[in-house]
Every structure is written in structure tokens, then in C-alpha cells.
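Preliminary data (for renewal application), tryptophan complex.
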Amino acid sequence: MQKVKHEQWASGFTFLLAAVGSAVGLGNIWRFPYVVAENGGGAFVLIYLAIVIVFGIPLLMSELMIGRGTQKPPVAAIQQMAHQSKASKLWNMLGWSYVIVPLGVLTFYSVVAGWTLDYAIAIGIGSLNNLQEGDSAKIFQELQDSPLKLIFWMTLSAVITIGIVARGLKSGLEKTVTILMPALFVILVLLMLYASITGEFIKSVAFMFDPDFSKITPELVLMAAGQAFFSLSLGAGSMMVYGSYLNRDISIPKMAVGVAFSDTLVALLSGFAIFPIVFAYGVEPTSGPGLVFVTLPIVFSDMGWIGQLFGFLFFLLLAFAAITSTISLLEPMVAQLSEGEKFSRARAAIYAGAAFWFVGIFVALSNNVLKDVHPLDFLPLFEGMNIEAVINFLAANVFMVLNGLLVSIFAGWAIKRSITLEELGMGDSMLFKIWFMLVRYVVPIGVAFIFYDVVL
Ligand code: TRP
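Predicted structure:
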């Protein structure tokens, strides 16, 4: 058994707040609704739910188990697990991927987090009042065309993230999530109530829960899997590193189910906060990434001061949700760098933060000043992609999925069964056998198919 020498979460509940804080983010509130709308509503939601249960929960358990079992940051954790199980040293590379990929995700995540800050302020001070439909699209485009604004807001979100992570687990991460997560939940429920009373609630229920089975295609399954991975923070170190601060007497299966359940609940709730308004205003739900940023401000501006208040709350909520996710994306590298006490935590946070911030500048410039730069044009797969698209695709569609695939093989085949049996604490029960079968066969084969389809 590992001697505990680093900080730990105050309780299982605090861990749950932090892990749910990581999982719940732009992925749920900004991305989920537009991806649902683009993929035919109910059919997508159904497949999404199935993937969360069959792939998501077993992978969450695997990542949490590796972190908690070793009480170490990802590189050291995977190294130690491999060593104890006499597995190949090549697994060390997986550990490095687990701390580098989240920095890649951060480069574009922090840019979008910046948009939410810009919108919260703009609506809050009333500069998005009395909009006509064309105005809103123009305002969104104007933001995309303003390099300085984008860099400013991205930098602010980076500074907030670095500041919180530098303070450490107790006074940084833990304090932040215990304040922001309950606030987020309250705002979301208020918004949902408001939307369902004033908007088209019944129509939204039908849209999200009445599946048209003819819409289920391989592409839909693929989109659902990508969305589930991203939303559950899988394949990029967040869950593994949060697991390493978890006390040994807390049940991993229960925590994994709690995270998956809450994350899915918030995604559905945000659907119910957005679709009733979208339908009531006759907005086209399939308007893509702009759904939240282009359409909702129109609606808010039509509702007078109430709209101004709710609009401000909504984008503030998005910013909160983003920040409790960005800290979990910076933490893996910071934990890794400061673990051997070579660097202090603050220094590690500044170095790792500076690295993603610097690349983030190029991401912020990708749709304006550098929009004609296509760095990997010589590869057919990347043809026509700007810098942001390349980084986004590589991090979210290639390496995260690959990491998930490898970690399921690691947990199912490389780690000794006696270790997983002990860590998961379910005994040699039916549930353990189901988990074991899922990570050994179902997840690797399923994810390999998805990967094959996306990349090859
Ligand atoms: N899950 C978060 C969201 O939905 C984003 C996120 C945090 C993430 N940590 C991650 C995504 C690790 C992938 C991997 O917004």
C-alpha cells in the first residue's frame, strides 16, 4: 500500500464536486445542445446515454483507479502500476500523453472560455440590448475577427486558471469548486425553470427523448462517442490526477457513477434551458457552434431587463463551468512537474500555463490573422485545416481517443487482476466481472472502431 504524502480531498463529496466540475463545462452547456440538434435530437441522446454507461463509466473507473491506487500524478502513476504488474516500460509513454494532451485541449478550450467572459460582460453592461437577428451574428463574427480581444480574454482565462492551480489542492482547486459548483447548479435550474415556463417545454421533451431510429448511423455513433469522452473528461489526465488525491476508503465505482450521472444530468438540463427558448423564438436549432453565442443573445435582448439579467447569469455560468474544467486540464502537468519537488507548485503552474497560453495565442489568431495558415496541409487528413482545427482535431479526436483505448487495455490486460480487484473494492462480484469484461473487450474494440473511422 502506498504511503500518502501529498494533499487529499477533504471528503468524497469534495472529490465529487471537483470531478463533476471537471466534467461539466463548455462540453455540456455549449457543445452538447448544438451537437444534439445537428444529429437529430432523440436518437443521438439515446446513443449518447448508452455510450456513457458502456464506455464512459468503465473508463472513468480505470482512470480513477490508476490515480488513487498510486497516489501519484499520471506519469508516475502509470509507471508504478506497470512496474507492480511487471508490464512493459513502454507504458511510460502513455503517462506522458496523459499530461501533454490536456495542455493541447487547453489551448482551444481557453479561447472559448474567453468568449464566455466577453459575452457575460457585454450582456451585463447592456451592450447587447435591442438586437435584431443580423446584429447578433455580426457581433459574434466581430469577436472572431478581433485578435486583440480574443487574446485578451483568452489570457484572462489562462491567468485565472494558473492562479487557482498555483494555490494548490486545498486553497485553490477545492475552494473554487465548492463555491462555483453549487452556484452553477442553482443558476442552471433557474434558467431551466424560466425557459420551460416561458418557452416550448413539451416540444423540447419530444425533441430530446423521442428517438427517430432511422437517424442512427455510424457517424452519429461516432459523434456521440466523441461527445461522451470530451464531456466526461476522459483520455486526458484530469480524472486520473483527481483520483490521485482520493482517500483509499472511498468507493471508486460509486464515484464514477456519481460523476457520469451528474455530468449527464447537467447536459440534459442545459438542453432544457436552451431548446425551449430556441423553439419559442423559431431559431434554427442546427446552427452549429454559434447556437449559444448567436441565438441566445437575441432572445435575451427581447426580454428587457429580465433578459439582461438572465443573459448575464447564463454566460457567467458558462464561464464558471469552463474554469472548473480548465483547472482540471492544467493540473495533470502541474502535479507531474511539482511531484519530485524539483519545481514548486506555483512555478510548475506558471511554466505549464505559459506553454499553453503561448500556443493559445496562435489558436486565437487562427480564424482571423492566421486564417490562411494550414500547417499540415501536406497530409490529406489535415487538408484545409487552420491551426485551431489541427490542434483541436489532434487533441480531441486523435490523442484523447487513443489514450482512452490504451488505458482500457492497460487496465484490462496489463495491470494485475489482483490489483484491480483490490482497488475497485467490489470483491470478485458480478459487477467486477462486468467491468473487467468491458475494459478487456468491449471498450478497446468499440473505441478502436471509432478511431479507425475517424482517423484512418
Ligand atoms: N469535460 C469538460 C467539458 O465538458 C472539458 C474537459 C475537462 C476535458 N478535462 C478534460 C475534456 C479532459 C477532455 C479531457 O467541458
